[in-house]
């Protein structure tokens, strides 16, 4: 149990929707929970009661889907159960995806084809997803192994794992819809007669879109605000000199403008209230990790690999290690961009970070 959890409130208690079924969490909003084959073993998806015009302009009642899960026979079967049990005889009218990670966009192509509807997503995430699906050299493979090696991860078993990940993304996301409808920060989507505001967020994904309905005081937060775990924020091989943690922490501040009693519908974990408290917790968490890293650099320079035991006290498998090294590097980069550390290439060809006063 996270000791900070007593500061937030779970209005539904421990209730979870049954497999292949839904649970209403607010007027016109149904919660779907699907399993994932990872340490993070589930994702929350949402059905929003909607009414949209058809090709002739006539209004049709139905549902908007928010997020899709990975593509697998199991998840397709669970969706078929939802179609049979939870749609009240109405169709899916559109699919909204908060961002391009596989557990969110994996089945978008199947859902859109199944119901002959459009995908709604930020243009940045759609195009990064296309790269990940159709350019097998864009993620993982030799480029990924070289990147992790540059930052001190030179264990051959781990690097072999990374080389084998060249097809990781398209295994979970085998295709994408050929067309999409762009959503952007500040857009106001009418869903079921209510207005949902699009709020962009950065650092976790290229251009993550959360949805907020002031009338319901409800935020579909995607992965930007989670109740029990901190969102992964990583530097990746494709953008090796990025500063995603600063982008993420700045993005979080935007949610402080929302109602203090907002019901947060996260992609992982349970719906909760206490948005402002949770944002404070996340800011404190990263501030503490940054302080630990700075304290450690007083004893000498650090590679991202050196930071892993500072930030992560548990044993990590190879899959988790790829996220952990990216997150360690994100913390080092924030300090580097802030002018508190400098980066040097050591004689072994590893990037190391050290306090500026070191010579």
Q: Which value, in Å, is the CA radius of gyration?
A: 21 Å
Classify the beta-strand content into a percent band. 15-25%
Q: Write down the overall geometry.
A: globular
Count the beta strands.
15
Q: Report the mean per-residue pLDDT as an integer.
A: 94
Q: What is the N-to-C order of secondary-structure elements (H for helix, E for strand)?
A: EEEEHEHHEHHHHEEEEEHEEHHHEE
Q: Would you tell me which CATH topology applies?
A: Metallo-beta-lactamase, Chain A
What is the CATH class?
Answer: Alpha Beta
Q: Catalogue the unreliable spans.
A: none
**Strand pairing plus helix content: what structural class?**
alpha/beta
- The largest sheet has its strands arranged as 1-2-3-4-5-6-7
Note the total helix count.
11
According to CATH, the homologous superfamily is Ribonuclease Z/Hydroxyacylglutathione hydrolase-like
Characterize the largest beta sheet: strand count, sense, and whether it forms a barrel. Answer: 7 strands, mixed
Report how far apart the termini are: 44 Å
Going by CATH, the architecture would be 4-Layer Sandwich
Q: Helix proportion of residues, in percent?
A: 25-40%
């Amino acid at each position: 149990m996270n000791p900070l959890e007593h500061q937030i409130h779970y209005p539904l208690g421990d209730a979870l929707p049954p497999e292949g079924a839904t649970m209403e969490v607010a007027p016109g909003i149904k919660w779907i929970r699907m399993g994932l084959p990872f340490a993070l073993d589930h994702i929350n998806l949402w059905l929003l009661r909607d009414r949209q015009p058809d090709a002739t302009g006539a209004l049709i009642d139905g549902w908007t889907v928010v997020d899709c899960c990975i593509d697998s026979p199991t998840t397709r079967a669970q969706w078929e159960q939802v179609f049979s049990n939870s749609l009240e005889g109405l169709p899916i009218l559109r699919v909204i995806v908060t961002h391009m990670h596989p557990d969110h966009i994996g089945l978008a192509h199947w859902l859109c084809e199944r119901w002959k509807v459009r995908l709604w997503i930020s243009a940045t995430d759609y195009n990064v997803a296309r790269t990940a699906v159709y350019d097998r050299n864009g993620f993982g493979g030799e480029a990924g192994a070289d990147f992790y090696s540059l930052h001190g991860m030179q264990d051959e078993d781990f690097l072999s794992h990374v080389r084998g990940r060249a097809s990781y993304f398209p295994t979970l996301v085998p295709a994408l819809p050929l067309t999409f409808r762009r959503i952007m920060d500040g857009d106001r989507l009418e869903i079921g007669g209510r207005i949902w505001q699009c709020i962009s967020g950065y650092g976790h994904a290229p251009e993550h879109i959360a949805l907020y309905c002031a009338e319901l005081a409800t935020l579909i937060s995607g992965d930007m605000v989670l109740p029990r775990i901190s969102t992964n924020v990583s530097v990746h091989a494709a953008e090796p000199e990025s500063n995603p943690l600063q982008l993420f922490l700045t993005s979080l501040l935007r949610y402080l403008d929302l109602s203090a009693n907002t019901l947060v519908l996260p992609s992982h974990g349970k719906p909760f209230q206490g948005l402002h408290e949770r944002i404070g917790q996340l800011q404190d968490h990263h501030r503490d990790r940054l302080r630990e890293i700075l304290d450690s650099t007083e004893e000498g320079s650090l590679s991202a690999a050196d930071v892993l035991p500072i930030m992560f006290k548990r044993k990590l498998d190879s899959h988790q290690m790829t996220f952990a090294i990216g997150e360690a590097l994100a913390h080092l980069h924030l300090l580097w961009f802030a002018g508190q550390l400098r980066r040097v290439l050591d004689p072994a060809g590893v990037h190391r970070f050290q306090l500026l006063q070191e010579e």
